[in-house]
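Re: glycine structure - here you go.
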Amino acid sequence: MIDCSFGEPERGKGMPIALVVHGGAWPIPDDQVAPHQQGCQVALASGWSVLEAGGTALDACEAAVRYLEDDPTFNAGTGSVLNAEGDVELDAAIMDGQTLAYGAVVNLHRIRNPISLARSVLVGPATMLASDGAERFAIAQNIPLCDNKDLVVERERLLWQQWKANCNASLLDLKQTSPARSSPQSAGHDTVGAIALDVHGSLIAANSTGGTPFKLPGRVGDTPLVGCGLYADVLVGACVCTGWGEAITQMALSRRAVELLEHRISPQLAAEHMVKALGRRVGGIGGCIVLSADGRVGLAWNTPRMAYAYRVEGRPTAWGV
Ligand code: GLY
């Protein structure tokens, strides 16, 4: 019989503060390992300084993800992959494990830090805002717009030019083998995310992405979809995903990982089980980070590499690529 006895919050005084960040699961080339590692470590440090000073998990996650969005190494904010039309198009989301509220933004242009806009949506009248409406909401929130070209880096512009030169299919030819409809394994790059537990007992999950390389304009992956790219429930824990968004969405991966925590499966086993299921059930590739409400960490991926860093109060910092 399934153990469903997870009705009461487990967090309270004496629980550790904790922060887990990831910088994407994909075949990170050797020459990009060091910048991925460094970026994750600095993002962790920027979020950790918030938690250590008694700040909120919300502020810590925003700080960590903003750093990763600003670091052109990562596929989020500046440095994002380009869609089939050569544009940056961004998605992000944030979820509060206490209230189960979430805020998400999709198909964004001209927003340097989508995570900050998602945070504004979290406390606003909607749960998800798209495209022009999201931009108008940003202006109303005094979040400045940039030129979308400011988010494009030379590395991605060259990759798009190479792809375009070899791509004869019409954009809307649904039979084309674009990375948006098949595995983006070879195209690479994927998503950033964070989960934090604070001294006040809050649990927050957050993520941000440029999506899959050369995606159809308007395509939305798992990242901003609650239960797919992220889920947080302070009663048990949280999960944030990275990888092929179509497959992760089909699996409702993050919600299912949290459900395993509800059945008292450890975060590590929950992460491993769900990533195995992703591969077996839908041929998906990617990874996830999991943090239980009592500060235990789980990490798993089925790609050649995933960039991550984490810290739990009273224990040394851990990282890897
Ligand atoms: N995992 C990000 C995306 O597929 O859009």
